């Protein structure tokens, strides 16, 4: 794990300080005055002056960095800019370079997993897509542990396999839903999980979740298990409302079954008893992956 602040400290800061020290020296600053202006030791300034500090070509060649160095050096030398203002100006540039720019690129090179998040990325934004997505994936992992650690869960997996999914708060498509790639299968009595949760890998269960949301249900997670009348009865006995739907309905069957139902529990069940070429399935939907996983685990405690 490598923080973007480490990129700032290791790559940007030595380059920026050495460039600024050089500019100040060109404007007649003594080594001591440079040290005071930059808030560093004279020995550090000496290292900058003698090329003993590694500099990053990416920042050396960036016009914005060059322009800021010249502006700060000019301001400090004339007294028009205080060290505090110089710091603020540098901080502004650093934050800009972190937003899908040079620092973000170097961060991706150090942490390749970040590259899967498209667009401008702010690791400091508490509402960033990255943070929200990782929290969703973490939630799916927690729910998955609840399921796979429960004795007997494999017996609830249907022939088509199970999946546990959770979506982003404003999900409007399958790419906004995280699930298990390849589904969860029963292999000789053991629930087998092919890989870590990813976005856009579930079509079936994700579609059910999105349809429920389309019908006005405030749910963000779903899991599918085998259908059995006793399974549905047990879920209802545990306080989870159950709604049957027709898989052959001409319109979206989940949306049709749930539309107008304002009395459903926070975690509820939709199920179908099968049709020609369609396996009977039960879906548990709720506020997050751990919640629906706990509802399923409750079946195994009976």
UniProtKB/TrEMBL annotation:
Residues 20-48 form the HTH cro/C1-type domain. InterPro entries: Aldolase_II/adducin_N_sf, Cro/C1-type_HTH, Lambda_DNA-bd_dom_sf, ThiN. It comes from the Archaea. This is HTH cro/C1-type domain-containing protein. GO terms for molecular function: DNA binding. Pfam families: HTH_3, ThiN.
């Amino acid at each position: 794990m490598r923080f973007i602040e480490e990129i700032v400290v290791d790559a940007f800061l030595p380059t920026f300080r050495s460039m600024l020290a050089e500019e100040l020296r060109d404007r007649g600053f003594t080594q001591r005055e440079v040290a005071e202006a930059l808030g560093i030791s004279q020995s550090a300034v000496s290292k900058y002056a003698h090329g003993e500090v590694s500099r990053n070509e990416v920042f050396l060649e960036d016009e914005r960095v060059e322009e800021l160095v010249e502006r700060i050096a000019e301001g400090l030398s004339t007294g028009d800019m205080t060290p505090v203002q110089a710091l603020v100006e540098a901080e502004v540039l650093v934050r800009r370079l972190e937003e899908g720019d040079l620092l973000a690129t170097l961060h991706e090179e150090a942490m390749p997993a970040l590259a899967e998040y498209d667009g401008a990325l702010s690791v400091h934004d508490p509402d960033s897509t990255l943070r929200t997505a990782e929290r969703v994936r973490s939630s799916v992992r927690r729910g998955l542990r609840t399921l796979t650690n429960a004795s007997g869960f494999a017996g609830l997996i249907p022939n088509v396999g199970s999946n546990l999914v959770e979506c982003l708060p404003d999900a409007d498509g399958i790419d906004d839903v995280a699930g298990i790639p390849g589904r969860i299968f029963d292999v000789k009595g053991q629930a087998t999980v092919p890989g870590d949760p990813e976005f856009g890998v579930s079509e079936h269960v994700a579609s059910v979740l999105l349809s429920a949301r389309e019908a006005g249900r405030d749910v963000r997670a779903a899991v599918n298990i085998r259908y059995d009348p006793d399974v549905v009865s047990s879920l209802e006995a545990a306080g989870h409302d159950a709604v049957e739907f027709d898989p052959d309905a001409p319109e979206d069957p989940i949306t049709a079954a749930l539309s107008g139902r304002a009395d459903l529990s926070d975690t509820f069940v939709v199920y179908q008893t099968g049709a020609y070429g369609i396996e009977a399935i039960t879906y548990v939907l709720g506020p997050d992956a751990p919640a629906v996983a706990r509802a399923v685990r409750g079946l195994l405690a009976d």
